[in-house]
Design goal:
By secondary structure, the chain is mainly alpha-helical. It has one domain. The protein has eight helices and no strands. Helix 3 (63-80) packs across helix 6. It is globular, with a radius of gyration of 19 Å. The mean pLDDT is 94.
Length: 229
Amino acid sequence: MSIYNQVELPESTARFREEFRAATFGTSYRGWLHFAFTTCGALAALIGAARQLEDVRSIEWLVIPIAFLVANLAEYLGHRYPMHHKTRGLGVLFTRHTLEHHRFFTHRATAFESSRDFKITLFPPVMLVFFLGLLAAPIAGIVYLLASANAAWLLVCVAVGYFVSYEWLHFSYHVAPQSRWGRLPLMATLRNHHTIHHDPKLMASHNFNITFPIGDLLFGTIYRSSKRE
C-alpha cells in the first residue's frame, strides 16, 4: 500500500502546498535520494564511532542514558521555543517550522502526496554535516578531555543515533496512516502525539517532542486526546 496521501485535501491546504512547491521545490530535488543520504550518512558515522570503542568500563556506559535524556530535552526545548516563537537570530527556524511546515501539514492533512514532499519534513542534507562537525564533535572533544575516549565515542553514537531516529520517526508520522509503514508497532501512538501538535490551536502549547514524549511529560505539556475538550 502506498505511503502517500490518497484522499482529498482541505482546499486551503491544497492551495498552500501547490504555491509552496512552486516557489521553493527545485526541479532537481529527489526525495528518496535525500532520505538515503541522511540515513546512510548517519549510519556510517554511527558505525564508525562504535568501532572506536575498546574495553568500555561500566561507568562509561552511563553516557548513553545521560546523553539520550539531554538530547530529548534539547529536542523539546528547541521545538517549544525557537521553532514556535520568533527569536532574534533564529528566525529562520520559526519561518521554516511554524509558517511553512505547519501550514503544509495540519492535523487534518498529515501525509505526503509524493516523495518531493519529503523536503518539508527532513532536515536539509547540510544539517547532517553541521550536526556532526559543529555540535557533536566539539562536545565529544570536551568529554574526551574530561572523561575518556570511550565516553566521547559513546556520546557521538548517541548523538548520531538520536538524529537519525528523529528523522525516521518524523518521516513516519507523515506517511499515510493506513500504509504498512504507517502501521508499524507503536507508530499509531507516536503519530497521534505528533498529529495533535499539528492542530493550529495546540501547536504552540502542547506535544513538542518529536521522538519520545519525555520532555512533554516532565514539563506537563502532553495532550493525549485528538479532540478539544
